[in-house]
Each structure stands twice: as structure tokens, then as C-alpha cells.
Write a structure and sequence with these properties.
The complex is a heterodimer. By secondary structure, chain A is of the alpha/beta class. Helices cover 38% and strands 11% of the residues of chain A. Chain A folds into two domains: 149 residues, 3-Layer(aba) Sandwich (Rossmann fold), CATH 3.40.50.700; 92 residues, no CATH class. Chain A has a five-stranded parallel beta sheet, with helices on both faces. The model of chain A has no long low-confidence stretch (mean pLDDT 92). The N and C termini of chain B lie close together (8 Å). The C terminus of chain B is likely disordered. By secondary structure, chain B is of the alpha+beta class. Chain B has a single domain, classed as Cytochrome-c3 Hydrogenase, chain B.
Chain lengths: 260, 434
């Protein structure tokens, strides 16, 4: 039973680096206000108290990679009114989905001396493969401002405003000169959803796709341009196969450039 | 009353997923297991075949709390493998970025994760609800924020920064961007000194062990990115010799590998307490002065006092950050050119993550792709030490209630600031009682 009538918030972790839930603790100026506006009922990284569900808002970080996680996400869904997948692992399987193209047993042999102690599924998969997800926050890691927008919107009962355009538009708005046009640097920005603040081009490097594909991308055309700029097909395939590589749109792009 | 079990099914206020199980049989400790159920993610497996510059970005994703540590160990190891020499001014900028991560991580741990154990609260969030304790949490959050600001200016963002590469930085900050941080850093330095004074007033369990502390040591500076590996038992080796002296083993109750000395007495201790004990005279002047003021004289063998060591490193980090910025010259170019001709190579390097030594070793092929990778996280190295501590610590708390005994064991584990996400390649506390 909740101690108060405030809405309850839960934060759950699956296979991940902890970075997206850390984003909540990294809202140093807003954290105590959030803790005042909602009952943080379950957040193992931050507090020992664990209140039982159901929860009004549940943030889920990480991908599903074990049988235990598969059972747990179903229970978390049952306990959650509004379930939000946060970050590339929860939304698209994350960097650990790179295993999805190999025999995971090969990896177990590489990392662990006693493979028989390890229990793992053959693939790292997004939350939405197993339970209905009410909203997704992209990114590796997520954006703090999008996280605050999400919590605020849910508390006042409106839809969160999260841009669906490409990183290119963010560069134009910020006045960042296009690296690909000006310097011939391969950049995934034209295929990648905005939200990070177009940091990489502002730091003099090509976007590497942390926020995954935006809704109207043309990855084959972009990849062909990378090849004109001097990359080989394997480099292009690898560019799409990273933090959001298991997202269907990036998977298709990788497949295209992996084949002869 | 003779057979008991302490179970913590889900360790809280640590990074990642673990549990603690302790069995007491006939009033003696029968078994201690830090059970790491954080799922394995197989980084060393899928790094094979990736480009060396991709690797610097990918390994950051092992840990959202200490991504800079992973980037630093990787960048240095890959530079060795490929024969890349970064421009000279890159060195101090890398240190500054790393100190930003120490400030963020230590600020979080001291105030939000560890302090609640000492003041009888379940979390920093509940501490903030107590008018007497709220100023502590506000101070901790502001300090932590300054660390994040440093990382954001240099790295583009605090979690998984984008500017680090083998060879230097894709972009180095202009001096004015760093100068803008000076007022907050100066406030942070005073707040860190106050943190140490406050930490010295806490009630520490009376528990000491004969530890073998291990850290980097450098003749001229507090250990961060460069130096030799030394220990309180007299080890003095190069970073390349790491694997000859430390081995990892895989135990049944854990998805993390445990590290130990190759010798018979296995466990060793890495992290802030090890660094402070082994490098006390390299701490900044204000850090040494406040250590003297509170009577902190190395070697300190009480693991709970890691909290004070983190405080001292906060003082050091703020003070050295101010010094680096005062002397800052923007590296031009900000990075070495990519090697004109790639050759197969092997490189190993250790840097000091907030939680202790982080070892990376890579073999790179003639196309610049990773052939083999080995990564040993600080928490893997401390796991065996934590279990060994519990064997000795638990008999002293058996007379207490189950709840109190459990809390004390958790407090001990948290002293090490375990990062389970890192160690999984790693934790469950159960003390087993009837």
C-alpha cells in the first residue's frame, strides 16, 4: 500500500549499462522536485525501500537476454499502468544485440572459462518483443531533457513531445556546419532520429546513431554515399550495426551492405 | 539459534544487479556468496571484428557510471597496439575529463548511495525529506553536477561522452569553455573539504583487515592514467605485466569473473582507499591538509573508511581540475592523425576508474580490426576481497538482529562501491538464517 496519494514511479533494470537510469539521478536540479511530485516506489540503484506495485509510471531500462528477465518483464508489465522503455537497449536490444548475428556459445567460450555456469538466451531483444510498451525514449543514453519532458507530460496528462525528425535538422538549427558536405566525413545523422542535441557533429565527428532510425530514412542511399567517401562495405555495415543495430530499419541496411 | 541465513535478494544502492547470501552453521560462517545475476553481455566477444575507433565508443557502454574509465583504458591500450602518439597537450585534458568522472561518481556514492547507511536512512531521497540532512544531499548533488558539467564540456555529454578517440580528442574545448566552470569548481573544492570533515564525524564499524592494496603509482602525480602498478605487499610491475600477476576465475554463483593474485593469498583491494593509502603524498595540498586535520594517516585498513578516501579524492579532483584549467592550452591538433599504415599489434593498459584499476588488452589486426580483447573491471578485482571481508566481518554481527546484521553486511559491500554492470562479464547478499 502506498504511503501517499502521489503517483508512483518505478525504475527497472534489465541487461544494460545503468546509464539511462543514471540519467534520472543526473537531473541534479530536478531530482528532489521529482521525488516530491511522485512517490519513487521502486528504484534499486537509488533506494533500499521497495514498495509493491502497481505503479503509475514504470521506466524500463535494458534488453531481455535471459529466461529470468523474460519472466520478470511480464510481471513488471502486470504491475505497471504506463510502461516506458528507456534507451537503446530497451527499445532495440542495445549494443549487446551484436550477439544476435553469431552463435552466443562462441562468445560464452571467449568471456567465461566455465560456460556451464552461464544462463543466457541466444538473442538480446527489445522490451516490446515481449510485452506492450506505452512509450519509448530513444538514445544511448537517453536525453535528460526528454526524460523530464516525459515525466512532466505524464503527470499533467498530455502526450510527451519528442521530435521524430533527423539529426540533420538539429545541426541546421544549431548552426553546425555539415561535416559530410564540408569535410567528407561519413555521418549517420541523415538516418538517425534527433534527441541527443546533434552532439557528434558539433564535436567534429560523424553521428554514430545512438538514437536509432528516424521515420523516413533512406539508409541504402546514405551508405552508398559513405562508399563514395572511401569506406568499404564492411565499414558501412558496421556503422548501421551498433547501438541500435537490431532495430528493423538498421538491420535491413546492414543486410544490404553485408551482401555482395 | 546456531544456524542462520542472511539473504539480500537484491542489493540496492549499488550499480547493477546482485545479491548476498551468507550461511551461518553452528555460529560459524558456512558460506558467503556475492551472487551476480546481472546478465552477461559478452563485450569481449562482439568486439572482435570491430574497428579500433569504434571500440573506444563501444566499451563505454559497459558502464553508464564510468564510461570515461573505459574510454581511457581503451584509448591508451589501442594507442600502444597501433603505435599512435597523441599530441602533448592531450594528456592533461584527458586527466581533467577523468577527474570530472571521479567527481560525479564519488559525489553520487558518498551522498546518495553510502551516506544513508551511516545516518539511518534507506536512501538519499529519504534523507532529503529530513530538514537536518537535506543540506547534505543538496551539497552532494551540486558537487556531482559539477563533475557532470566538466564531462559535458569536454566530452559532449556526461554519459557516454563522444569526444574521446585513440590519438586524442575529436574536439578539444576552447579555454573560455573551461574557464566558465572555475567559480563552481572553486565552490566544489570548499564543499569537498567540508565533505571530508563531515565524513570524519560518522560512526565507523570497528573492523580492520590486513589488506593488500593495489593501484597505479606515478612519480610525479596522483594516479589516473599513467604509471606502474604497485601494492602494499611490494609489487612493482609495468601495466603490460598485469596478466602475469593477476588471474580471473569463474565461480558458479556469479556472472562476474573473480580476480585474484596468482599467488596463494588471492584477494586484493583496489579503489579510492587503495589509491589514497599507496599515493598519499601525491594528493593535492588541500587534500593532505584536511586528512591531517581529521587524523587520517595511511595505511587505513578499515574498508568502511573508503567513504573518507572518496572525500579526499573529491578534494584532490576539484583542486587539480582548477590547476589544469589555469594552465590549459588547447591541444592543436586535438588528435594524432590516423596511422598511415596499419600493422598488427597488441597493447595493454590500466587506468584508475572511480572504483579502481581497469585493465584492457587488445590485439588488433592489419586492417585495424579487433582480434582479441580482454577487460578486467575494478569490481571483479574487489569481489573476492568483499567475500573474504564478509567471512571475517559476519561473526562480529551475529549477536545483532537479523535486520541489523543484514544492513551492516550491505554497508560493508557498499563501501567498495561495487559496480555490477561493470563486473558482469558480476552480485546476490543472502545471509542464511533459519
Amino acid at each position: 500500500m502506498s504511503k501517499s496519494h502521489k503517483p508512483t514511479l518505478a525504475v527497472y533494470k534489465f541487461a544494460s549499462c545503468d546509464g539511462c537510469q543514471l540519467s534520472l539521478l543526473d537531473c541534479e536540479d530536478e531530482l528532489l522536485a521529482i521525488a516530491g511530485a511522485v512517490e519513487i516506489a521502486y528504484f534499486a540503484e537509488a533506494r533500499r525501500q521497495m514498495l509493491d506495485g502497481p505503479y503509475d509510471i514504470t521506466l524500463v531500462e535494458g534488453s531481455v537476454t535471459t529466461d529470468e528477465e523474460l519472466e520478470r518483464i511480464r510481471e513488471v508489465r502486470r504491475q505497471s499502468r504506463f510502461l516506458v522503455a528507456i534507451g537503446a537497449c530497451a527499445v532495440a536490444g542495445g549494443i549487446q544485440a551484436l550477439r544476435n548475428w553469431t552463435d552466443v556459445n562462441d562468445y560464452i567460450d571467449v568471456v567465461y572459462a566455465r560456460p556451464e555456469y552461464i544462463d543466457t538466451l541466444d538473442r538480446s531483444r527489445p522490451i516490446s518483443d515481449f510485452v506492450p510498451v506505452d512509450f519509448e525514449l530513444r538514445g544511448c543514453p537517453i536525453s535528460k531533457s526528454q526524460l523530464l519532458e516525459l515525466i512532466t507530460a505524464l503527470l499533467i496528462g498530455r502526450k510527451p513531445r519528442v521530435p521524430a525528425h533527423s539529426v540533420c535538422l538539429s545541426c541546421k538549427r544549431q548552426g553546425t556546419v555539415c561535416l559530410m558536405v564540408a569535410q567528407g566525413v561519413p555521418c549517420l545523422g541523415p538516418a538517425t532520429q534527433a534527441g541527443c542535441g546533434a552532439i557528434c557533429p558539433a564535436y567534429n565527428r560523424g553521428c554514430y546513431g545512438c538514437f536509432g532510425p528516424h521515420e523516413a530514412l533512406n539508409p541504402v542511399s546514405l551508405g552508398e554515399r559513405f562508399i563514395e567517401l572511401g569506406q568499404n562495405r564492411d565499414q558501412v555495415a558496421r556503422a548501421f550495426r551498433s547501438y541500435n543495430g537490431y532495430h528493423p530499419a538498421f538491420q535491413a541496411a546492414t543486410r544490404h551492405f553485408s551482401e555482395e | 539459534m546456531s544456524n542462520k541465513r542472511i539473504n539480500v535478494d537484491y542489493l540496492t544502492r549499488v550499480e547493477g544487479e546482485g545479491a548476498l547470501r551468507i550461511e551461518i552453521v553452528e555460529d560459524r560462517v558456512g558460506d558467503v556468496q556475492l551472487n551476480i545475476f546481472e546478465p552477461p553481455r559478452f563485450f569481449e566477444g562482439f568486439l572482435r571484428g570491430r574497428g579500433y575507433q569504434e571500440t573506444v565508443d563501444i566499451v563505454a557502454r559497459i558502464c553508464g557510471i564510468c564510461p570515461v574509465a573505459y574510454q581511457m583504458s581503451a584509448a591508451h591500450a589501442l594507442e600502444k597496439a597501433l603505435g599512435i602518439t597523441p599530441p602533448p597537450d592531450v594528456r592533461s585534458l584527458r586527466r581533467l575529463l577523468y577527474l570530472g568522472e571521479w567527481i560525479e561518481s564519488h559525489g553520487l556514492h558518498v551522498y546518495m548511495l553510502h551516506a544513508p547507511d551511516f545516518v539511518g536512512h534507506e536512501s538519499g531521497i529519504s534523507m532529503a525529506g529530513d530538514p537536518e540532512l537535506r543540506p547534505l544531499i543538496e551539497r552532494g548533488l551540486r558537487m556531482k553536477k559539477i563533475g557532470n558539467q566538466l564531462m559535458t564540456v569536454i566530452g559532449g555529454r556526461e554519459i557516454h561522452p563522444v569526444s574521446v578517440c585513440a590519438g586524442g580528442f575529436y574536439r578539444a574545448p576552447r579555454p573560455v569553455e573551461l574557464l566558465a566552470l572555475i567559480a563552481e569548481l572553486a565552490w566544489g573544492l570548499e564543499a569537498a573539504v567540508e565533505t571530508v570533515r563531515w565524513a570524519s564525524t560518522l560512526d565507523y564499524p570497528n573492523f580492520e583487515m590486513a589488506y593488500d592494496f593495489v593501484s597505479i603509482s606515478h612519480p610525479d602525480e596522483y594516479p589516473v592514467n599513467e604509471g606502474r602498478l604497485i601494492s602494499s605487499s611490494g609489487l612493482d610491475i609495468t601495466m603490460e605485466e598485469y596478466e602475469e600477476h593477476f588471474v580471473e576465475e569463474h565461480v558458479a554463483h556469479s556472472n562476474a569473473l573473480h580476480s585474484r593474485h596468482a599467488g596463494p593469498n588471492g584477494s586484493y583491494f583496489v579503489g579510492p582507499l587503495a589509491r589514497v593509502n599507496l599515493n598519499f603524498e601525491k594528493l593535492s595540498p588541500r587534500a593532505r591538509a584536511v586528512a591531517d586535520e581529521i587524523g587520517f594517516a595511511p595505511p587505513v585498513n578499515n574498508p568502511f573508511k573508503s567513504l573518507i578516501a572518496r572525500g579526499l579524492e573529491l578534494v584532490h579532483s576539484f583542486e587539480e581540475s582548477l590547476a589544469i584549467i589555469a594552465d590549459y592550452r588547447e591541444p592543436r591538433p586535438s588528435r594524432a592523425p590516423e596511422p598511415a599504415e596499419l600493422r598488427p599489434g597488441r597493447g595493454a593498459h590500466v587506468t584508475e576508474a572511480p572504483r579502481g584499476m581497469l585493465y584492457h588488452r587488445y590485439e588488433v589486426d592489419a586492417g585495424g580490426l579487433i582480434d582479441a580483447a580482454k577487460i578486467v573491471a575494478p569490481t571483479s578485482q574487489n569481489l573476492k576481497r568483499m567475500e573474504d571481508d564478509l567471512w571475517s566481518f559476519v561473526p562480529g554481527v551475529l549477536s545483532r538482529s537479523l535486520e541489523e546484521a543484514t544492513l551492516s553486511c550491505e554497508q560493508l559491500v557498499r563501501s567498495y562501491d561495487p559496480c555490477i554492470s561493470c563486473a558482469t562479464h558480476f552480485l546476490k547478499l543472502e545471509i542464511v538464517r533459519p
